[in-house]
Design goal:
five-stranded mixed beta sheet, two-stranded antiparallel ribbon, Glutaredoxin, 9 strands, globular, alpha/beta
Length: about 150
């Protein structure tokens, strides 16, 4: 599980086109990485739309935003196109990033336990180190809160 001061994990993800990229490629600039359980579900859609609504402000602050789920790249592309999303969506099908960030957790719903992605956000500074972590995120107002923290770097 990542803690403040830890480096960006050296994990490989796939973009919506199925092209691999390394997350540590972003070292040297601030970065927001957020994990969400599943594309095209209400909470995940609202979160992606909120980050998209603030995309120009994140860009002005020089902070890329990457949303990660275990969905297949094709599903992410469909999700992005359906809602006109401008954030980078990445697929972690094998779960390597979820394991490295500590977001693959036991969850419970209606008395049933299962493994799933914890909604969490990580803010990295320009040196590629974790500056702040939000776990068990509540979507409303979250993207704006992260933006303010990113601007304060």
């Amino acid at each position: 599980m990542l803690e403040p001061g830890d480096a960006i994990p050296a994990v490989t993800l796939m973009d919506m086109e199925g092209v691999e990229f390394a997350l540590d490629h972003y070292s040297g600039k601030p970065l927001v990485v957020y994990f969400y359980p599943k594309a095209d579900t209400p909470g995940c859609t609202n979160e992606a739309k909120d980050f998209t609504a603030l995309a120009d402000e994140y860009a002005a602050a020089g902070v890329p935003v990457i949303g990660i789920s275990r969905d297949k790249p094709a599903k992410l592309k469909k999700f992005s196109e359906k809602y006109g999303l401008s954030v980078i969506l990445a697929s972690d099908e094998p779960g390597d990033a979820c394991a490295a960030f500590g977001t693959w957790v036991e969850k419970s719903l209606y008395g049933r336990t299962y493994m799933g992605i914890e909604r969490a956000t990580f803010l990295f500074g320009a040196q590629g180190k974790v500056q702040r972590i939000w776990r068990k995120v509540k979507v409303k107002g979250h993207a704006a809160e992260v933006l303010e923290a990113a601007r304060a770097l």
